[in-house]
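Lecture notes, part 5. Sequence design as translation. It can be helpful to think of inverse folding as translation between two languages: the language of shapes and the language of residues. The source text, in structure tokens, appears below.
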């Protein structure tokens, strides 16, 4: 089977030598490279396809694929973020691309950028429960990673305004205010 794939790659490469803009050949080469685990080649063919595609949705999907390869196969988080941001240039309201970007930024400990990404997700989100979850995640970052209890309190409160059933946010708020012995604020939060 590897011989067949290698032969197919040779023929497809020859096709590209004659017709460099052959979308079918590029897509097939990208697929074969993926199956063979040749991730740099996957990126190379995807970038060539990006230049040739005109449909925004196809370009968006390719950018997400490039980001996923950089992240999951090549462990290049900076390049993954760049690809996801390129996808967001095409579809600025994509929650999926924002979430992927957020996850990579948190893993890379780029907390201010991760917070900006979450803030954008809050703006985009229509569902109050999910919006509350995003706000609670922002509060957690302020509390756990940036040591900013004031901002954490602010975002936990916003989270609870969106979704009063978020017990985790309420407990975290309770802990912060109890640690600070801010009984008045604590009483106010038991509204």
């Amino acid at each position: 089977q590897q011989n067949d794939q290698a032969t197919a790659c040779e023929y497809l490469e020859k096709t590209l030598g004659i017709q460099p803009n052959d979308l079918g050949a590029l897509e097939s080469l990208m697929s074969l490279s993926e199956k063979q685990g040749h991730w740099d080649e996957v990126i190379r063919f995807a970038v060539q396809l990006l230049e040739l595609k005109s449909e925004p949705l196809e370009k968006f999907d390719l950018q997400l694929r490039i980001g996923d390869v950089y992240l999951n196969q090549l462990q290049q988080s900076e390049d993954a973020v760049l690809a996801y941001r390129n996808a967001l240039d095409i579809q600025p309201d994509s929650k999926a691309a924002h979430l992927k970007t957020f996850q990579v930024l948190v893993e890379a400990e780029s907390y201010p950028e991760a917070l900006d990404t979450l803030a954008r997700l809050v703006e985009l989100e229509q569902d109050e429960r999910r919006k509350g979850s995003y706000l609670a995640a922002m509060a957690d970052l302020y509390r756990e990673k940036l040591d900013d209890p004031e901002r954490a309190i602010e975002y936990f409160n916003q989270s609870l305004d969106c979704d009063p059933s978020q017990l985790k946010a309420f407990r975290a708020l309770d802990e912060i205010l109890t640690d600070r012995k801010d009984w008045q604020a604590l009483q106010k939060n038991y509204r």
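The translated text above is only one of many valid answers, since several sequences can fold into similar shapes. The CA atoms of residues 81 and 138 lie 19 Å apart.
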